[in-house]
Specification:
By secondary structure, the chain is an alpha/beta fold.
Length: 440
């Protein structure tokens, strides 16, 4: 009865949201591509490939961060079991584009079917997966149930339960308990996540604490660092300058950094500010804030200066609004503020600048990286500010104390390095279970 009720409610909700999806299709050229995948109707060539090689491992991810986690898992499983093939599913056009960078020629990519029994069963029957791997908080009851009924091992990797979701799961324990208990293994990020999953009805014996996969995802991009070094040099932001970087800033945070720069620049003439906004479509607003503050701004997407030599405009503030370069800037910056943590909730990835040995600061709102921030704070590898005024104080302290700044970055890099290896252990555990299942 519960499943009939769920399918009815899910169908009604989807019908209500259908105008929104259609509007997105009009706005985003790529969103309408493969639309029928959502109903389990895959293109003929995809269907033929899946029928020709059943028993793939089905891995599902949605956000960019989850896609990177899934990519790491696939590469590690392939390293440990050469020849393994994957079916990679996602739900958005953004996820689709990122997933294309993670898969190999023998893999198949689809949009995940709607979580309705008829849609899910059609794809599961076609794929005959050797396992289903869901990432972080992707709980799709019908997909889980369909695979579990078919005796397919079901895993939840890098599992976390947000502060917002925890009370909802607990309140709906009557519904989620049977769903969670269909998982073969849940690999939780922290003890808190395990407690929250148990409160939602999961069996404690199903859950193992591995830590965050995000520590393994981060890798320095030395090629990009070299390219950006040349660009910075062309604007006289040479290696002897001190870079204060705002990484993945959200509205409001860029203005705070601009004000901090204006306050400190007279006493620290070597200081330069680089802002990398989280959403490039908001770069116009960020540029307006910089100009209104009386500062000269060079915007990377509009910069026509040559990267060769000192030919560009010397500017105290650089606005980096081009894709795929944040990791490179992290490797060249001395002090980094990680966005979506002061004027918005959740935080962006603070592991990446910590890995590069930068002195990293975050705001109070780091819910999306709870186990990560806990590890970094315990190791004194990051500074978490509580109120806006503290950011100015801490940046000034780090600028005036080279020893403290370098020590902070050294502890951060060491903490990240010590926590790598999660993906390798999880991949080995899942492969062992899959092989044992095949042997039955």
């Amino acid at each position: 009865m519960r499943w009939i009720f769920y399918n009815i409610v899910f169908s009604l909700l989807y019908l209500l949201l259908l105008p929104h999806f259609l509007l997105r299709m009009l706005r985003r050229g790529g969103y309408k591509e493969r639309f029928w995948d959502r109903f389990g109707r895959l293109p003929c060539d995809v269907t033929q490939r899946l029928r020709a090689s059943p028993g793939r491992i089905w891995i599902h991810a949605v956000s960019v961060g989850e896609v990177f986690v899934a990519g790491q898992v696939m590469r590690e499983m392939r390293r440990q079991a050469p020849g393994i093939q994957f079916l990679f599913s996602t739900t958005s056009s953004t996820g689709w584009m990122q997933a294309q960078k993670q898969i190999e020629a023998q893999d198949v990519q689809i949009y995940c079917p709607l979580d309705l029994s008829c849609c899910v069963q059609r794809v599961v029957k076609l794929v005959q997966p050797a396992a289903l791997i869901l990432t972080e908080s992707e709980i799709w009851p019908n997909l889980i149930r369909c695979c579990a009924t078919a005796k397919v091992p079901v895993f939840l990797i890098n599992a976390r339960v947000s502060d917002r979701s925890a009370p909802r799961y607990a309140k709906l324990r009557w519904w989620f308990a049977p769903v969670f208990r269909m998982f073969t293994l849940i690999m939780a990020q922290s003890e808190l996540d395990k407690r929250r999953l148990v409160a939602a009805g999961a069996d404690a014996d199903q859950i193992q604490i591995y830590g965050s996969f995000k520590f393994d995802v981060a890798h320095r991009d030395l090629k990009k660092e070299s390219e950006l070094r040349a660009w910075l040099d062309s604007h006289r932001v040479t290696a002897d300058k001190m870079i204060l970087l705002g990484g993945s800033t959200w509205p409001g945070e860029d203005q705070i950094l601009i004000d901090i720069y204006r306050a400190l620049a007279p006493d620290y003439p070597q200081l330069r500010l680089v802002i990398v906004p989280r959403h490039f479509e908001k770069a116009d607003a960020v540029e307006d804030n910089i100009v209104r503050s009386g500062l000269i701004c060079v915007r990377k997407s509009r910069d026509d200066s040559s990267p060769e030599g000192d030919t560009g405009l010397m500017a105290p503030v650089l606005l980096a609004d081009t894709t795929g370069e944040l990791m490179g800037f992290y490797g060249l910056s001395q002090i980094v503020f990680v966005g979506k943590s002061l004027c918005a909730h959740g935080a962006q990835n603070m592991i990446e600048p910590c890995m590069c040995g930068a002195a990293v600061l975050v705001g109070p709102y780091t819910e999306n990286f709870r186990p990560v921030i806990s590890d970094l704070l315990e190791a004194r590898g990051i500074i978490q500010i509580i109120v806006e005024e503290m950011l100015l104080e801490e940046v000034e302290r780090l600028l005036g104390n080279d020893q403290a700044r370098l020590a902070l970055g050294t502890r951060a890099a060491a903490t990240v390095a010590a926590r790598k290896g999660v993906v390798e252990r999880c991949a080995a555990q899942m492969l062992e279970i899959v092989e044992a299942k095949k042997a039955q």
